[in-house]
Amino acid sequence: MTSKGTLLLTLAGVVGFGCSAPDDGNDPAPTNAPPYFGQPQTQQPLNPAPGGQVGAAGAPSTPVGGAAGSGSTPVGGTAGSGGMMAGAAGAGGMMPGGGGTIPVGAPGTGFELVPVGGWVAGNTNEAGIQGAFYTISDADEMPPGVTTITMQDFAAAGDAICVSGAASQVVGGAFGQYWGGGVALNLADPGQMQPLQGWNRGNVVGFRYTLTGPTIPPPSSLRFTVTFQGASGDPYCQPITATSGTPVTSTLSSPQLIQACWQAGGAQVPPTALLTSLQWQIATNEMAPTPFDFCIEDLTAVVQ
Q: Are strands 290-303 and 161-167 parallel, antiparallel or unpaired?
């Protein structure tokens, strides 16, 4: 793993310490235009950040069992829900306009999302997903938590997205401050420093992926979370039960994905909601810090 400082980069595409830049915006037009183009651009509230913009960072709540809060500060690009960019996010990959829908596949099949330098280009997958992977951490909030997180150099990692560190121990019942950290992926980033858009899921019903590594947190401490335009209150999430090397599927509907998933009875994500990011969050507890060291591999958008 490289240190967090190795991830800093410039918008000119210069990548420090081996991180590679994403697409320069000159890719050929995709066969199927991303479905999010042509949608109204509902810009999220922005916070200033060096070199770029931060998308909506939902204020953390204080649920029993840990909370998913907002993210950290990105450098060099556009980040949804906050987070430090890994790779030159938001520097390119510009897609042409036009409508389009996600093709209908056979049940259980899907469209693989292959990152290059931490960036998933929209013309490399039929789900029309485009954006950057980045880290999220309560240490970058005010008041800060104490989560530590590093992300592997993408230039050396290939298509695996790897993170390690330790999520905060909650002090004084302040789950809103000590909510943890993790890794996230934007879903509809046009690039070129344009505002983030919402991604229309079309026929996509969930995401399949494989976690590998020596320290995968248990279901009580590891959550799959989605953010979407217009969301408020507690996060929409589901616990992740994973064994290293075994594929996991996280759905986009209840009863698996609900608001405040640490308790029963939460609302589901509205069927028409435009999603903005996926997050793999290491949640916190009051007993001890939560160590983690794992990679996300073979990420695939699953169609019904």
A: antiparallel
25 lies in a domain?
no
Tell the residue number behind the tokens 């400082």, with chain if given: 5
257-267 burial code (b ≥16 CB/10 A, e <16):
bbbbbbeeebe
Residue whose C-alpha is closest to residue 299's, from 101, 139, 158, 170 = 158
pLDDT tens digits for range 131-177: 999 999 999 999 999 999 998 876 666 789 999 999 999 999 999 99
What whole-number distance in Å separates Cα of residue 185 and Cα of residue 247?
18
Classify residue 225: in a domain, yes or no.
yes
Joined together, the tokens standing for residue 230 give 């217009």
CB distance 276 to 80 below 8 Å: yes
- The enclosing domain of 273 has a CATH number of 2.60.120
Distance CA 111, CA 126 (A): 6
In the block, which residue shows the tokens 């204020």? Answer: 59
Tokens of 5: 């400082």
Residues 108 and 228: their CA atoms lie apart, in Å, by 24
Is residue 61 domain-resident?
Answer: yes
Question: Total structural domains in the chain?
Answer: 1
3-state secondary structure of 5: helix
Can you give the pTM of this predicted structure?
A: 0.72
Q: At residue 58, what is the residue type?
A: G
Q: pLDDT tens digits for 15-55? A: 333 333 333 333 332 333 333 222 222 222 222 222 223 33
User: Quick check: is 2 in a domain?
Assistant: no
Predicted confidence (pLDDT) at residue 225 exceeds the cutoff of 50: yes
DSSP class of residue 138 equals: G
